[in-house]
Amino acid sequence: MIIYFMCLILFCVGLYAILVKRNLIKIIIGIIITEYAVNLFFILVAYRSKGRAPILAPDQIVKNMVDPLPQALVLTAIVIGLAVTALIVSIAVRVYEKYGTFDITKIRRLKG
Amino acid sequence: MLELYILSLLMIIGAIIAVEIKDLLSSVIAVGAVGLVLSVTFLILKAPDLAITQLVVELLCLIILIQATIKRGIPRVISRQSFLTIFVTLTFIGLFLAFAYSSLRDLPQFGHPIMRVANHYLEEGLNKTGATNLVASVILDFRAYDTLGEATVLFTAVIGVLAVLRKIGRKKTP
Questions:
Q1: Which of residues 52-91 of A touch B (CB under 8 A)?
Q2: pTM of the model
Q3: Residues 6+ away with beta carbon under 8 Å from B121
Q4: ipTM (interface pTM)
Q5: In sequence order, which residues have a C-beta less than 8 Å from that of residue B2 and are 6 or more positions away?
Q6: Which residues fall within 8 angstroms of residue B36, CB to CB, at 6 or more apart?
């Protein structure tokens, strides 16, 4: 139970960065940390104590394996997270080219 | 069990350093450290496929972020946050943690997952798909449409990056 709570604290650190920071790169870092926390939470829920990896072997019994379904979903989510991060960073770089700063309070001319 | 606590504590410390440090490049490196510790955590939680994927994705993410931050003016953050903003944010985060802690008790106990669907996959996986790695059998056979959607999202994101960062056909800024 405490391990779930530590995972939530990691989520909250990312949330704090998204809400408070004014630098675009810091906001992107907050989004990345939030994503890591959610992935970790899914894998924590799937864990079986003293379980083994979901790979079949001759001495493997089914009742002894961890849950493979959240692992498959998180595998998809990690790759999508990379693509989303690349898209956000490219938008941030474009904003820097146009306005010359990463500070979101100085980017006022957000028209057209 | 103890190593999980140590690793998650390490991740929290790395995340706090990444959020609070002034230098942008150091902040990006701290995020890389958090991702690598997450990879080790996946390995301890018996998810080797995820550990490998997380390692590769983390390195690519680090390269992209360093490319974005390096050589871009003064990479230092001048922080002039108002006290009220930080206070309101911390209040909401505290409320969120309190509600989350009260609702965590309804989850299954750590180490005892509910595996109603997954038991079917584990028992029938070898006969139906012929794959010994059951994560691969779930991704590529039982839930292949999910992977198709993932590929769609991936290509859409790549098209978006190419459209945002293109050099030709852009209107000249006055």
A1: 52-57, 62, 65-69, 71-76, 78-87, 89-91
A2: 0.89
A3: A68, A69, B134, B137, B138, B142
A4: 0.89
A5: none
A6: B55, B58
Per residue in B68-102, pLDDT (tens digit) is: 888 765 556 566 667 888 899 999 999 999 998 88
Candidates B38, B90, B125; nearest CB to A36: B38
* The two three-digit tokens of residue A74, written as one number: 């998180």
C-beta of residue A32 within 8 angstroms of C-beta of residue A18: no
Look at domain A2-49+66-110 and name its CATH class: mainly alpha
Verify whether the Cβ–Cβ distance B18 to A33 is below 8 Å: yes
Which residue ranges make up each domain of chain B? 2-107
- What's residue B29's pLDDT? 92
Domain map (residue ranges) of chain A: 2-49+66-110
How many C-beta neighbours within 10 Å does residue B42 have?
24
Q: Residue B76 forms beta bridges with which residues?
A: B23
Give the CB-side neighbour count of residue B101, counting CA atoms within 13 A: 11
The alpha carbon of B92 is separated from its chain's Cα centroid by a whole number of angstroms, namely 23
To test the contact with chain B by mutation, choose from A20, A39, A63, A106 the residue with the greatest count of B C-beta atoms within 10 A, namely: A20
- Cβ pair A68, B120 in contact under 8 A: no
